[in-house]
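Hey L., structure's done. Input below.
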Amino acid sequence: MAKNLLGVICFLLISGVIRGQEMPAFQKLSAQRDWIIDPVRQDKNLTVEKVAVKCNDEDIKFNLHIASPGKVDAGTKYPVVLFLSPGDGSKKEVISAYNKYWKEEATKRGYFVLCPEIDGEKFLSVKDAKTLIEACMQTAIKKFPSAIDDKKRIISGVDVGGIGAITSYLFHPDKFEGCVVFPGAVATGALQSQMKDFKIENLRDKPLFMLVGEKDEEWKMGNDHSVDHLKEYGMKIKYEVLKGRDHIFDIAPSVIFNWMDEVLGIKREIASDDSAVSKCPVDRKEVNNKIMHDYKGVKYLFCSDKCKNTFKNNPGKYLKKNKSN
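Output:
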């Protein structure tokens, strides 16, 4: 196994895209800033908590932005995404990336999103990644003690955050149910220096979704090689090259959320699609995406709290009625 892993590392180092030293591909972000919103407006669903941890004998302090899915229903547990932002993890980049990729669909589908103001490079150490992951999770759980489903975790990232996300996932596959990066890359320097802590057998059947722009040549080359080899270790990899896209690209959030729903085993009666008009199962009016109820593992959306409570009292009646319609 160790010999095979060295093969992966050599392959990726030759391609010249994986970070040992700073590579040209990783400098693209600084020249492509049009996606950043300035001034940044704080979303009403975002709360900020201060986190302090010790990593590699260094005291690290950062803000953790916790995005709740709007109205949180008592007794309902929601899945959670730990998202590592592009660039150096500044407040502007964190909130802009949240608004761009997560805000609407996470609220609609009922996901918590955790966005730390921290450089994704901090997650390239086995021990530090574990410390930071648990610090973010425990901070969120303390803030929302009965709402976060600690067994339904996804890690995600973009650019440097994508590197941190996928490398953390390879080091600690037991911490998450899946990983999605757009784009991301394997930090071979980190793997090479910490091979004794890397257990390939733990990666079998672990889901990984990688997206990269067709025009993002250096990152695409690295992704092509790493996907081929990671598949050899039994990972369930979905890999998409987006035509005409560069390094930071627009993507329909439903693409990411449909994959996450599938990985987490979340079934939805009503399609969460930008083109779909969802109807309340009680009175068939258009739904409010913030009003939902989980029934037998399926999330249902309603137009009002009144209809939600009516449904909860006799769900079979309305499911049968809608099926006949």
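Residues 167 and 186 are 6 Å apart (CA to CA). The radius of gyration is 20 Å.

-- N.
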